[in-house]
Amino acid sequence: MLKAFSFGFFFVIFMGILSCSTTQEPPVLTKSIREGWQLRELGKEAKYPAIVPSEVHWDLMKAGVIPDPFLGSNEDAVQWVSEKDWVYTNEFQLEEHWLDYDQVALQFEGLDTYAEVSVNGHRVLQAENMFIAYEADVKEYLKAGTNELKVVFNSPLRVAKPLHDQFNYEFPAQNDAADEKMSVFTRKAPYMYGWDWGPRLVTMGIYRPVNLRAYNAGEIRDFHLKPQSISEQAAEVEVAVEVHSLLHEFGELDIYDAQDNLIASVGEKLQKGANELKVSFTVEDPKLWWPNGMGEQHLYEYRADLRINGKLADRQEQRIGFKTVEVVNEPDADGESFYLKVNGKPLFMKGTNYIPQDNILPRVTEADYVQMLNAAKEANNNMIRVWGGGIYENDQFYELCDELGLLVWQDFMFACTMYPWDKAFLANVKKEAEYNVKRLRNHASLAMWCGNNEVQVGWENWGWHDAFGYSPEDSVKMYHGYEALFKELLPEVVADLDAGRFYYPSSPISNWGDTKDFAIGDNHYWGVWWGKLPFESYNTAIPRFMSEFGFQSFPIMSSIKRFSEEKDWALESPVMNIHQKSSIGNVTILEYMQRDYRVPEDFEDFVYVSQVLQGYGMQIGMEAHRRNMPFCMGSLVWQLNDVWPAASWSAIDYYGKRKAFYFTMQRAFEPILISTETEEDQLKIYLVSDLPEHKRGKLVLEWKDFTGKVYQQKEKSVDIASSSSEVVEQLALSDLPKGFIASKGYLKMTLEVDGEKQEKHFFYRRTKDLKLPETAVKISQKQVKEGFELTLTADAFAKDVYVDAGKASGIFSNNFVDVEAGVAQTILFRSEEQAVKFSTKHIRETY
Questions:
Q1: Which end of the chain has the least Cβ crowding within 10 Å, N or C?
Q2: Which residue numbers delimit the Beta-mannosidase-like galactose-binding domain (predicted)?
């Protein structure tokens, strides 16, 4: 049952569900200005065709003016583009009846970044922030027939130069790949200026859609559904609708559910300009929204109809999910907690850090978003962190997270440097924050806001004061500016517009280099990789919540072939170095490989082993975090995806190929996990469960050699408590079955729960010290509805078997698997291809 309440000068109370005919459409016209654009350099005559959304580099590439910066060593050859000013023009046709409307608005969802827009020679708006939408009333400048729309983009490098030059020191934007750090002065995606996993492409363009919108009387500017309380019995919802009225007349707001039932209404006298109408309703017995793996993602749809003087003026639709999220960050017996409670239940967060999917944002398609976020779900993620050096993602991203059960940790777009604090900069940021908080706050997936990435920990621990020569006076000014932005402005916007949502000033709050900080809040642990510490340090470097950790690998070899030539296939070739942005990159991969694997001489084999290495190391970390719950309650890997084809920390490469790391993440984040840990002479076998219910199962232990011979078998019943991590078996590493040779065998663990089996292998020696036999992996394939079902077999143990589909497009359900002697391993290749030639590679073949 729905109960409705209203506020205002006039109100009506609806008890129950009232049905109403709503076939009337609002008298609103929309026109997408997508085609017919032309691009030229300011002051030049040559023009190039464009379709918006677009970007200058992309259009110049399509016109053959510049090479693809992602290929070979082309990155440097396109840097001149960012130093020029560019003009987009469009001549669009407008029918006479458009001019009969009271107002015609020109709407830009995204302008990157410094732009001046004119209609028929009249300037209508000026943009200076990539992260907000712009709108202007342009009716007085329009005419029936042909109209000219012009957008002039000024180089963000030149616009920022005077702002940069007013300081007698550099800001510590060390990822800005230029001598003069312009990025901090510009409200533009920081990663575009270069990062340690991406190129420097300082873009310009109309990167999101452009529309004309005509309406009469008024329009809905914002439709906010605010649950006031949620339980399994009822959800109390307040609706706040921002109405822009052109008239001083009576307005009525009607709220409908998905079944077209009128559930609430309010009416009042509207003032010209901004008005807020409020109404409340109750949903009895709501179906709760749960993160992936914990339940269903129930979403409720509602519609707001605005009537002015009895006529339908505008309409908006919105979805919400009924859930409660509490971020518990408070002192406790162990230090300072950091964990999430969803619908009252503490949950371990398993997830990824997400960066933009391209340096040229308009190239990212709807299908790309679907594929990437489905991949996160399939890898058993329940959280995705939108990292603060990228962008506030588009609406489709958050809608998909709503549907897939991916809680969103949302950073504001600040990363790894201090920022200016002048009034103009703070005012610009305030508009950005208000726009994005209002845009995103309705999403069921939104869990929390975070002010920045690594600025606080950088200021306190990275030696910026000495490296950049800051005087004590300058340091005081800079930190006061930090507080004004991250401890005053942003939390005030969140409190005002998204009351009740958790705000965190900076991630991480603790420093990985100080062991006592592991007990405090969240942590970005880079002892592995930057600190060169062994992978095993993940077992002891356990924070309360791990919000970043990672290790690099090369992309899949078929991806490398797309951006390079055979002459480039060497670890330190010029092209490979250009596509490696970490200052310690390839040499660090090599150093870690030497510790655990035999280093192949062949480059293709090296690429393959680099992926196995990355997956192995990251699996140690993910499992360690889960074993140590509830002290540790989160594991967010760095990183899910790439912005360009390169060696990086990603689980999925730029071309969408899933690396070994992706599949180890998928296994490490299974709802029930078998995990091992060694301490001195002891092997501890853990069972970790994220499930809300208790389970019973059977654990079978088998000591086998690589030919398949079983030396000993042990079986026991196990109880698996909900949301638990427990040691279920402890063995002496030195207590091996008679005849079993540690370098020639392994311990196979099989857990059976509810008729389903899960397996894990424990090796008593590092991979480089295993005496793996030579063997061939056979593939038999069967075409099925989803693509190809592949069955892998081998006469002897084949470790980390990678199945390659060549140039065929598709997605493996599993890969980089162990194939035991005489035991078939089945995986699915989802594809629309009619014929695919598969091949395999395993560790022994790289010796």
A1: N
A2: 37-208
